């Protein structure tokens, strides 16, 4: 047998996927499982988007596109960032990718050399580490406290930046916490990184699912930040595998050069269909759906407190609640297993998102209907009382 590459041993597993497999197996046995595990919206692409896809297919628009994507879609995203997030962006800086995963891969392959260290918060989405590893880099998780909103700050940069450090990979709002970075804290963090000639990759996948004031892109603070975004979460197109990068002008050509070899192009039919996402009628539908997510969050937060599941940082975006389960258990993995098998409710243990809060925290996704959330709370109440 040929030897496997060493990076296979370095790739972080994703327990949420294993949990999903267990939930599917229990469902197949006839159990009714409420999944608060996988971060996938229960909404799907609006009918108008699906109709555009069908028309594009019938018109034969399924061939390769430019590696950077079709220009009408790049322009639509640039306009969207200006209108919704306050950032003025040239369409030339928008690179269409095969999902946010494709965007992260291109960003890391462009900016990270073998042996380069990239700082990211603990907790954070586990796959982010694997993109750094795939580029030959070294992901370094920095424990982040609730007082920091579970995010990196300027003090972390000063303390942990070493000779091999080249940049940071952060997300706002974040998975698993649903918490955004305070604007002034982000300004200070970016200043510290730039002072060291480092890069900032910002994951804004959940920026559209923000529940407080009008959201602003990190680009409004600094135009050199590399932005990751996707049609999966806010636009509810998870399986369409469509995302984008926004890069500073000097990275346009290098990223497109890599994209031409690593992906050729993002799915062409999905690109044409995605243009419809930005039509006024469809954007109004997305806004209605965003408010549905907010309603779910606002229902769950007091219920979690009532059940003794403390929420250290109120999520202001995404569709996750990062809850402290120490009142009930000292082992989040065991608690997650029992919750699934005894109560029929799936939630992801903290071990998926880094060691700092591995035993004490669970991530709950509220990307499911309010009626199912109400049933989940009832089941969890009975489980915790037993």
TrEMBL record:
* InterPro entries xrefs: Aminotransferase_I/II_large, AspAT/PAT-like, PyrdxlP-dep_Trfase, PyrdxlP-dep_Trfase_major
Xref: CDD domains: AAT_like
Molecular function GO labels: pyridoxal phosphate binding; transaminase activity
Q: Write out the entry's keywords from A to Z.
A: Aminotransferase, Pyridoxal phosphate, Transferase
Q: Which PANTHER family match?
A: AMINOTRANSFERASE, ASPARTATE AMINOTRANSFERASE
Naturally occurring in which organism (per UniProt): Pollutimonas thiosulfatoxidans
UniProt-recorded name of the protein: Aminotransferase
The family classification in the record reads: Belongs to the class-I pyridoxal-phosphate-dependent aminotransferase family.
Cofactors demanded by this protein: pyridoxal 5'-phosphate
Some GO term, biological process aspect, for this entry: which one?
amino acid metabolic process
Q: Name one Pfam family in it.
A: Aminotran_1_2
Q: Could you tell me which residue ranges the Aminotransferase class I/classII large domain spans?
A: 32-378
């Amino acid at each position: 047998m040929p030897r496997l590459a060493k990076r296979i041993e370095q790739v972080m597993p994703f327990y949420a996927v294993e949990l999903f497999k267990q939930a599917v197996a229990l469902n197949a046995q006839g159990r009714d499982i409420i999944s608060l595990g996988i971060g996938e919206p229960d909404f799907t692409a609006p009918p108008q988007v699906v109709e555009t896809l069908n028309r594009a297919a019938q018109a034969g628009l399924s061939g390769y596109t430019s590696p950077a994507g079709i220009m009408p879609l790049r322009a639509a995203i640039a306009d969207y960032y200006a209108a919704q997030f306050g950032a003025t962006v040239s369409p030339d800086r928008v690179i269409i990718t095969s999902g946010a995963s494709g965007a992260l891969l291109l960003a890391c392959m462009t900016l990270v050399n073998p042996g380069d260290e990239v700082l990211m918060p603990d907790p954070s989405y586990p796959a982010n580490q694997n993109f750094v590893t795939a580029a030959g880099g070294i992901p370094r998780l920095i424990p982040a406290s609730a007082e920091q909103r579970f995010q990196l700050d300027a003090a972390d940069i000063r303390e942990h930046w070493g000779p091999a450090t080249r940049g940071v990979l952060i997300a706002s709002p974040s998975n698993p916490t649903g918490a955004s970075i305070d604007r002034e804290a982000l300004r200070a963090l970016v200043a510290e990184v730039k002072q060291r000639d480092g890069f900032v990759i910002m994951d804004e996948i959940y920026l559209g699912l923000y529940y407080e004031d009008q959201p602003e892109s990190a680009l409004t603070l600094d135009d050199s930040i590399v932005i990751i975004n996707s049609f999966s979460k806010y636009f509810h197109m998870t399986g369409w595998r469509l995302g984008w990068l926004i890069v500073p002008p000097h990275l346009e050509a290098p990223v497109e050069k890599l994209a031409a070899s690593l992906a050729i192009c993002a799915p062409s039919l999905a690109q044409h269909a995605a243009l419809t996402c930005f039509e006024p009628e469809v954007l109004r539908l997305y806004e209605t759906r965003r408010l549905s997510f907010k309603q779910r969050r606002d229902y769950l937060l007091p219920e979690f407190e009532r059940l003794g599941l403390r929420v250290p940082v109120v999520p202001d975006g995404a569709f996750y609640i990062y809850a402290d389960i120490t009142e009930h258990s000292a082992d989040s993995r065991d608690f997650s297993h029992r919750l699934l098998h005894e109560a029929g409710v799936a939630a992801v243990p903290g071990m998926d998102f880094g060691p700092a809060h591995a035993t004490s925290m669970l991530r709950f996704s509220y990307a499911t209907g309010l009626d199912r959330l109400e049933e989940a709370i009832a089941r969890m109440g009975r489980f915790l009382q037993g």
